[in-house]
Amino acid sequence: MIARFAAPPRTTDYTQETRMITLRWACRLLLAFAAALTGAAAGAADFPAPKDAEAVLRDFRFHTGEVMSEMRVHYRTVGEPTGEPVLVLHGTAGSTASMLTPAFAGELFGPGQALDAAKYFIVLPDAIGAGKSSKPSDGLRAKFPRYNYDDMVLAQYRLVTEVLGIKHLRLIIGNSMGGMHTWVWGVKYPDFVDALAPMASQPTAMASRNWMMRRLIIDSIRNDPEWMGGNYTTQPRAIKTANVFFGIATNGGSMAYQQMAPTREAADKLLDGRLAAPFTADANDFLYQWESSGDYDPAPMLERIKASVLVINAADDERNPPETGLLERELKRIPGARLHLIPASVDTRGHGTTGNAKFYKAALQELLQAAPRR
Question: Which of 205, 242, 253, 351 is most deeply buried (CB count within 10 A of its CB)?
């Protein structure tokens, strides 16, 4: 916020009164400036600055059998390699930046917090198809290999083991798609990690509203004449409306929306603002990101999980509604697995609730204190 004050009076007779007015004005300005600096410092995340890096995975083989000679994986790290390694995984259409927010990293990575960067070596990769990692918009467009969650987890595993030389992880925590990746890690590499904290996810097949809404995004792009089979010259316009529709239908929380838009006029204003907001995603990247979830289903292998498991979900999660009972049913197959269900309120945001670590940071700290080192 910029403080605005009236300028000191201009006069050719520089009297004592004028000097006092000038002095008072200067003091007010200095106090406002100091307050602004204090506020900025208080709002800043109190953890070491993330370090950017990039790795190239040679001869990366996808589940389809296609091989990419050079798969680029961008990642960030927080803390020193001497710390206990932790893997943090972002959601669909996100990137490492979406996990470095004050609401998440600012609540977890600081001194004395659950993932104190002085103790842990925190690794945050951009998934295949997202951020600065290899993706269709790099040039291959619709000829980019069709990747799925198994491929994305394989890229993360190769980054951790081949590039960073990590032999064992203390924790994997992921949000939404990252939560589903966390489940895949648990069944594919059961001896590699001590603790799993999948958030805003379920260890069951992609289905129901969750898949139907994703299908609508996929179809809106493919059926847009401007998409031109992926060889468009301008971004297809249908993607923006589809994205806003998806966001309102599957993210935000019923109680929160009622508070934000209690009248039709308020609802129109909220919707108009979202439709007018800049949308810079590439259509092919976006299409691949949502399509990659289609065959997700770790359920048949849940008994393979050896890590301590803390599931963090929200009671008002539109994509993973707890009333289906699916999560409770599957957790019985994993010894000691616990559910931390965040109650719905005007402060929660449905599927987006888990982006705010204040709701579960204590539970996460308890998990790390109790989880045995394997």
Answer: 351
